[in-house]
Amino acid sequence: MRKFKFQTANGEYTVTLKENGRRAKTGQKLTDYQLIAPDGTVVFSGDDLGCSPMNNTELKGNAIALLGFLTLKPGDTDDDYFKDYTPAQLAWCESTAAEDLRCIVDDREN
């Protein structure tokens, strides 16, 4: 498992990535992930991050790509994207912490 730290004005967020040995129908390697808030709260977790079959799944670039999705907020994409979000996850998406992480992702994409 790899851990990546992202410093924001709200504290340090951690993204963990761990290859889980599964593959999507498209051939992508699937990876377990967590986004952990500075207070230790797990904001998001899943086992379905699709990564290139040509690369190690536990790369910082994959953590940054994951944040690109986890920092979307209602209005950024279709409403169906958020249908399984908990109220706490939706509130986080609208927070300044999510916006800070979005800025980090945007800076790294340029």
Commentary on this structure:
With 110 residues, the protein is α+β, with helices and mostly antiparallel strands. It has one domain. Helix content is 29%, strand content 35%. It contains 3 helices and 4 strands. A 4-stranded antiparallel sheet has the order 1-2-3-4. The radius of gyration is 14 Å and the shape is globular. The two termini are 27 Å apart.
Structural class: alpha+beta
What count of structural domains?
1
Helical fraction: 25-40%
How big a fraction of the residues is strand? 25-35%
State the end-to-end distance: 27 Å
Poorly predicted regions: none
Mean pLDDT across the residues is 88
- How does the overall form come out from the CA principal axes? globular
Task: Give, in spatial order, the strands making up the sheet with the most strands.
Answer: 1-2-3-4
Summarize the structure.
With 110 residues, this protein is of the alpha+beta class. The protein contains three helices and four strands; from the N terminus they run E-E-E-E-H-H-H. It has one domain.
List keywords for this structure.
110 residues, single chain, four-stranded antiparallel beta sheet, globular
Set down the secondary structure blueprint:
Layout: E1 2-8, E2 11-23, E3 29-36, E4 42-51, H1 60-70, H2 87-93, H3 96-109
Antiparallel strand pairs: 1-2, 2-3, 3-4
